[in-house]
């Protein structure tokens, strides 16, 4: 991902990402008390890097994020991108690293979902209104 990433078209997310990047992760890491990371995926159609901010949790050394899309009927675009190309770039605070992202397996999901609803309880409400099972994504460093 050598090109500068294209940030989310959603205005408030783009503002969050800008603050996060410009401060080297010093500002924007916490969002309403929840920790956030930046994930850069490769656009499945464009091939361009796409960056967004997501709330995260931890499972030992792994990072967890949720493809909630606010409980919408469709998965978020970043999730479709990582299904097509699981190699991603992640920024957590000041640390930037390459990683591989994948949906949690059916066996993993219940425990990881519980972890993530502990971090951001609103996910439970999103799941109640969503006509799909909201994926939990596991991110593992390629270091």
Descriptive overview:
InterPro entries: F420H2_quin_Rdtase. This is Nitroreductase family deazaflavin-dependent oxidoreductase. 27% of the residues lie in helices and 34% in strands. The chain is of the alpha+beta class. It has a single domain, classed as Pnp Oxidase, Chain A, CATH 2.30.110. Strands 1, 2, 3, 4, 5, 6, 7, 8 and 9 form a nine-stranded mixed beta sheet that branches.
Supply database-style keywords.
Pnp Oxidase, Chain A, nine-stranded mixed sheet, 27% helix
Summed up:
The protein is α+β, with helices and mostly antiparallel strands and 143 residues long. The chain has helices spanning 11-22, 77-84, 109-119, 122-129, and strands spanning 6-7, 30-31, 34-42, 49-55, 57-59, 62-66, 87-92, 95-103, 136-141.
Count, helices: 4
**Broad structural category:** alpha+beta
- Under CATH, the homologous superfamily reads Electron Transport, Fmn-binding Protein, Chain A
CATH class: Mainly Beta
Number of E-type strands:
9
The profile of the biggest β sheet is: 9 strands, mixed
Number of separate structural domains: 1
Residue share in β-strands = 25-35%
CATH-assigned fold name: Pnp Oxidase, Chain A
Compute the CA-based radius of gyration: 14 Å
Helical content (DSSP H or I, runs of 4+)? 25-40%
Per the principal axes of the C-alpha atoms, what is the gross shape?
globular
Instruction: List SSEs in N-to-C order.
Output: EHEEEEEHEEHHE
Mean pLDDT across the residues is: 92
Please state the second-level CATH architecture: Roll
Please state the oligomeric state of the protein chains shown: single chain
- Distance from first to last alpha carbon: 16 Å
Q: Could you list the spans in which at least 5 consecutive residues all have pLDDT below 50?
A: none
